[in-house]
Amino acid sequence: MVSRPGAAQETKAPFTAGERLRYAVRWRLVPAGEAELVLGRDESPRAPWKVSASANSIGYVSNIYKVEDEYQATFRAQNLCSNDIHKTIHEGEHHREVTLSFDQRRKLALFRERDLASGASQRQTQSAIPDCVHDILSALYYVRTQPLVVGQSFEIPVNDGPRTVRLRVDVQAKEEIKTKAGTYQAIRVEPEVFSGNLFKEKGRMFVWFSEDASRLPVQMSAQIGIGTITASLTSVDRNADSRARNSQEAQ
Prior knowledge:
Number of helices: 3
Shape: globular
Number of domains: 1
Mean pLDDT: 90
Strand order of the largest sheet: 8-7-6-5-4-3-2-1-14-13-12-11-10-9
């Protein structure tokens, strides 16, 4: 059954500015990296949400394939639709910068890609978008606002360049997930991101959200050709934003 999710502006957000989520990443059974999600927002009630994400390889994996990725995105307060996302990607021999901006007035997604090694512009495209579209980060926060009823599905308009897809999300089961941050009763969902929907690779992705009011993404797992990559929650800090501001004011 495919259901249309309720409008985000009608649902109280389960997250607040200052939320910092840290993850340990494993490739197969090997420690592979660390990741972080930080959510911020200015004090104005209509100010957009700002989310920063980072992923860094560690140890043995970093020696064979070094990863240093940083993403920054902003999305609107009322409906969680994306304004833009900026990516700085260092993966192995690939070093690039990607900017994706959503012009809601003209209903266009503007995509730009630049090679960081040479400084050369690699690609610039534009594509049509609907009234509301999500980037890959804002989509994660949008799903947190949804009821997540097992056995139901919903679709999200997502654009990661160069086109918008109707991304199906299946709500599959309730499971207990043990992480370093604690043990959670969680709801497993499967967004159909592979096989050309968002990513060309074949595979499957699963995300477990806590069943409580905060709907924390406590675990994420991608089953792809090189093996299973899993990110598990290690810590939750809900006041990181205010502490950072206090530290800057003290200086």
